[in-house]
Specification:
By secondary structure, the chain is mainly alpha-helical. The strands form two sheets. A two-stranded antiparallel ribbon has the order 1-4. A two-stranded antiparallel sheet has the order 2-3. A hairpin with a 6-residue loop joins strand 2 and strand 3. Helix content is 51%, strand content 4%. The protein has three domains: 118 residues, no CATH class; 61 residues; 72 residues. The protein is elongated, with a radius of gyration of 25 Å. Helix 1 packs across helix 2 and helix 8 crosses helix 9.
Length: 299
């Protein structure tokens, strides 16, 4: 299921057309058809899962930083002092500062992932949520899509081990707020995860397609928006053939702009038109059809 992380991937997340989809956005789309509703529902779940110890995380970091500074001073004093009682004092201060520097990170790592490498997801300290569990179940598989973050140095994609989603605080990886995501330690390190975590859009589309319930056709199943009319009108537009399909992001943007223009021009009295994220699946289908038509013409 994992898409090929080869050439052609965009490095930065530059809006809803980007090929890098933040994890919190992907789960919100997985939870509800409306993005805002999904974000609200997920925020409620994360709020209920907030660990009591999280209020002390910032304090622990402050203690660690101060202790690290004292550790540097103690080491300098230990190196410069002669073998006397002052050297013994600096030795004791060095050990104490080192312990105080490392303790917050070690304790958090052990709490989240245990004393050994977890082979299965660890028990949650709170009630599970079906949407979170369904989404996590895909990411926890060895054959599942690989999440990644963007390195601050060199703008590289750094892929995460699937065991990153085995920890007790795994729900916080899906928070829209970086302060919540900072609770989670990167697997096998003593550091918090930097910035956003992403999935490739192809993987997100597959996950959403798998989660979408099968609906039977028939009366009463009409779509809220006139997608079929918009598609028919769009395929009658000669400018559609000028779109560069090799640039997926630009093609998506161009088609969504044309769809949005049609819906705005043909809106009813309410003025209600679909949002950009609702137009994305339609644009995907149009691109796929255009590629097929292009291949037939070239063949």
């Amino acid at each position: 299921m994992t898409s090929n992380p080869g050439a052609g991937w965009k490095v930065f997340a530059d809006g809803e057309d980007s090929e890098n989809v933040p994890l919190w956005r992907a789960l919100a789309q997985f939870t509800a058809e409306d993005l805002d509703e999904g974000l609200k529902a997920n925020a409620v779940v994360i709020g209920k899962a907030q660990p009591v110890a999280s209020r002390y995380y910032n304090m622990a970091y402050a203690v660690s930083m101060v202790s690290g500074f004292l550790l540097t001073i103690s080491l300098a004093g230990l190196l410069l002092s002669p073998t006397t009682q002052s050297a013994n004092l600096f030795s004791a201060l060095t050990l104490a500062a080192f312990a105080a520097t490392a303790a917050p990170h070690v304790c958090r790592q052990l709490y989240q992932y245990g004393f050994k490498t977890p082979d299965v997801p660890l028990p949650l300290p709170h009630a599970p949520d079906p949407h979170f569990e369904g989404f996590l179940g895909i990411l926890q598989k060895a054959s599942g899509p690989r999440a990644f973050y963007i390195s601050r140095f060199g703008n590289r994609r750094v892929f995460l081990d699937r065991r990153q989603f085995f920890g007790k605080l795994r729900y916080f990886l899906f928070s829209e707020h970086s302060a919540d995501r900072a609770f989670v330690m990167r697997f096998r390190t003593g550091h918090s995860l930097p910035g956003d975590i992403f999935l490739h859009r192809d993987d997100v589309d597959k996950m959403l397609a798998m989660a979408k319930p099968k609906r039977k056709g028939g009366p009463g199943r009409n779509s809220k928006y006139r997608y079929e009319d918009a598609i028919i009108a769009l395929f009658g537009d000669p400018s559609l053939q000028t779109i560069d399909l090799s640039d997926r992001v630009a093609a998506m943007r161009a088609i969504k702009e044309r769809l949005s223009f049609w819906f705005e021009a043909n809106a009813d009295e309410s003025g209600d038109v679909p949002r950009g994220d609702q137009l994305a699946p339609i644009a995907e289908k149009i691109i796929a059809q255009l590629k097929k038509s292009q291949a037939i013409r070239q063949g």
